[in-house]
Every structure is written in structure tokens, then in C-alpha cells.
Amino acid sequence: MEVSKTKVEAIVNYKLARGTFKTLEPILAFVDKDNYKFLNAPNILKIEEEDATDIKIREPKGFQVLEESLFDNTVALKQIKNTAKETKNRLALIHNNTKLKLKKHHVIWLIRDQIARVALTGITGFDSPVLEQSLIEAQLSYKMVETILEFSKSEFNNAKLLKTWQDEISKTIIDLNQEFSTFNRYNFIKNHTHKQLELLVETQKDWQVEFPFELAFTNNMTSLFSKATFNVNYFSDSNKPVVDLQEKIALGEELFNDVSLSSNKEMSCATCHHKDKAFTDGMVTFSKQNRNTPTLTYSSLQQSFFHDGRAGSLEGQIVSVVDNKNEFHTNLENITEAVSKNLEYTNKLKALYNKTTEREIRHAIATYVRSLNTFNSKFDRNINNQENTLTESEINGFNIFSGKGKCATCHFAPVFNGTVPPAFNESEMELLGVPKSIHKNSKVSDDLGRYHVFKTDERKMFFKTPTIRNIEKTGPYMHNGVYNSLEEVITFYNNGGGSGLGFDLEYQTLPTDSLNLSKNEIKDLVNFMNSLSDN
């Protein structure tokens, strides 16, 4: 009884501390990303694998760990106190060492990040998994945004613009004052998030802001769901604008479809990545491959490649395909030689790059793949007010995806993959417990996934979270193609993943509790996901 009473008091104090943290989130998350991540990390092991000689395994700390621990009867009070102490010490360190020197463009970036953070992770329950205080916390962060704008009052040449901001934030806070389970996230993004992004572009013009460069979001983005949303170069090796972009895309497409680059002259990139199947092949696994062929659409908007994340760039991924004995079965020297024998290729490479080495060949192919982000699906067109054709079921499906279903806590909008917004500098990996087959007594898949890269035991059966854009066209599903329909996939999640199938997986990251989705809710989820097919 005494322990229970103490935990009740701890929960009250936790909510107060968490509220202050979320109030400061817009600033802290921008000026000190590492400490913010420490304080707001999910309650799962943090594995850092720089290379085979530098692997760090860290126990999670911070507010999410405290939140789950306070509501877990198996967690001792002593453990909770230790986590609270470490969290307090980190906050004291931040307080003593943080010095703010923000320029005008920093303030714009900071506000843009927070607007996106609320829409893409905040209102999904990403960092409030038990209490589901996301909407309350979003209100607190918006009050801080309002405070920041007030502090910047002298920068406004147009006084009406500041008043418009104040009115919009007031309306936003009112609309956030709802129940988590019934909140209409689609309407919130459409009516508030996008309006605020438009106001932000007006503000940077009014302030005459000059940006030194672009981050993941373009500096003039006004929608989260647009081809103009992302600076695709942020995700590339060079992070520089590509000169002669359209010509390089065209050359890359030619090379992508050319079978002469493989050793047997029978395979091209397009052999496994069919354009009409959203650049997949429609097979469980391709011949002599162990894993399902992933889509290339939107693949450039992530930080790791292949199901196990073993490549760090599109150019690096191409090397693996070239070297793989079950794919191109050749090497970069042979590829370069094959291209050099084609006068048309060599002329184009010299004209566009002044060189004809393997580096330029890989860059051209990667540039083509980076062009496969169209953001023109039915869902995109509707949330951007280009048409009004989404059904009630499709809208409800998005709201379930981003709310009750907790899908968006791993498949982050707008790309709906595992690369975490708004910084987009980390692609998450998950252990779901995917079965080997659909049979009742099936065992867990024996593919150890990420483990094969660095042999880290805590990474056994971990796989990168893929995009669900174009998912209607990219079945069969999962890394081993075990499921043929989206209904089967959702049922797997609804029942608690591998745990629901009876698998005892210590590091499963998917919540083991049932989502309690009804048949109609599953149908709505499928309808929403189908609305993400590119036009």
C-alpha cells in the first residue's frame, strides 16, 4: 500500500516535470539534439554501431522510461528513483551549460521543426506511450512557440502578421483540447500545420531572412506532403545541389535498365524493381535471394539501405548489388569497362561529370532513384486541398494509423518509414517477431537481420522500418514476404506481433498488447494505406 501511494505521488510530480520539459522542447530539441534525445528516448535498448570495433549498448533513460516504469508493477521503486536521478542530473547539466545565440534563420528553423514535430510525432503518442498526454503536451509547446514569436516582435515589419500568428496558435491550442482517442489528426494537419508553415514562409520574407543552407526540410516548404517538402540532397553523401539534374536523372534511368552492366548480361536494376509494381517485383523473394525486394520509391528519404540497414547511402547500396554473386555478380571495374564501351554513355558522362569513373556511374543511378518521390497520391492531393475525394473510411484510417493503431510511432509521416522527423538523421530498426510461415504452429523467422552486419546479439531479428507508400502495389509483405494481404499484416500487429504468436522475444520493440482494432477499423486502415499509391 505504501509503495502504491508513493507511486501515485511520483506520477503527479512526473507530470509536472514532463510538462516543463515539453514546454522547453522547441528550444532544447533544436540547440541540443543529443541531450534532447537522451531525455526523450523510447524505453528500448539503444544500440550504436559505428563499426565492428565500436559498438555501444546503452540502457534507455529519461522521461519515456519513467512514464512506463511508473505504470509497471514489476518495476521496483528503487529503479524508478535511479532513472529519475539520472534524468535530473542530465537536466542540471543542460541548465548549467546551455547558452543561446540564435540568429533569425535559427528561429525560423526552430519553429518549423516544432510545427512538424507536433504533427509527425507529438499527436501520434510517440513519446507518451502510456499516459497519452500528447495533445496536452502539444498545447504547451505551442505556447512556447507563441512566446518565441513575442520575443521576436521587433523583427516583424508587418504587425498584422504577428497578430495572425497569435490568433492561429490560440485556435490550435483550443483544437488540441480533445481526447487522444478521438482526435482528428487529418483535419489538424490540413487546417493548422499547413497554415502555420505558410505563415512561417511569410514570416521569413517579412524578416528578410537569409539561410546559409537547407536542412532536411526545404526552407520554403508549406506542406508536409509535397515533392517540395524535402531537400533530397540532405539525404545524399554530398548534401549539395545536383547540377544538370534532369540530364543526370535521364542517364541514371538508362543505366538502371541496362542489362549489359551485369556479368551474364541478363540482369539490370529493373529486373528486380519493376516500375509498374512501385519498383518491387511482386515475388515472395527473388530467385536465390532470402529477402523480399523492397520498393525504391521514397527510398532516398532515409539514412540506411537494405532490410538490415547495412548500406549508408544509395551509392553504397549499388556497390553491394554489383558485388552480390546472386545479382550482378561483377565488380565496379567491370561495370566501368562495360559503360566505357558505350560511346553514348561516355559522351553523356563526360558532358555531365567531366569523368567516366564508377563514382559517376553510381551517382547517375542514385540520382534517378532519388527522383522517385512524387508525393502525388490521392492522400497527398487531398491533404494539400487539391481535391476533396478522400472517403470517410480513408480519413478514419489515417486517424487510426496516427492514433489508436500506433502505426505512426514507427512509420513516421510524411514518408511513412522509420526515419525520425523532424531531423531525419536516424532510420529506426525494429524487432517485430515475424513468423517463418502463415501456418498455425510456425516458428519465428530464422533470418537474424541486422545481427549479420556486426554480430551484435541485441540486434538479432531487427529490420529497418520500410515506407508504406505504394504498399498496395508492393506485396507480398515483411522482409520474408510471409503475408500476402494487408489484412494479414494488420492482424499480426493487432495481436501483438511475435508475442501474440507465442514467440518469447526479449527485445521485441513492437508492443505486445493487443491493439483491439475492430474489423471495420482494420478495413479503414487498409483503405487509408491504399490511398498512398502514387498517381
Characterise the protein shown here:
The radius of gyration is 24 Å and the shape is globular. By secondary structure, it is mainly α. A two-stranded antiparallel ribbon has the order 1-2. Strands 3-4 form a two-stranded antiparallel ribbon. It has helices at residues 2-31, 33-39, 63-70, 77-97, 104-120, 134-151, 159-175, 185-206, 245-256, 269-272, 314-323, 332-340, 343-353, 358-370, 378-383, 392-401, 451-454, 486-494, 497-500, 519-530, and strands at residues 46-51, 54-58, 429-430, 463-464. The chain has 4 domains: 1-101, no CATH class; 104-237; 243-370, Orthogonal Bundle (Cytochrome Bc1 Complex, Chain D, domain 2), CATH 1.10.760; 378-530, Cytochrome Bc1 Complex, Chain D, domain 2. 46% of the residues lie in helices and 3% in strands. The model has no long low-confidence stretch (mean pLDDT 95). It contains 20 helices and 4 strands.
Structural class: mainly alpha
Radius of gyration: 24 Å
Low-confidence residue ranges: none
- Fraction of residues in H or I helices: 40-55%
Q: Strands across the major sheet, in which order?
A: 1-2
The structural domain count equals 4
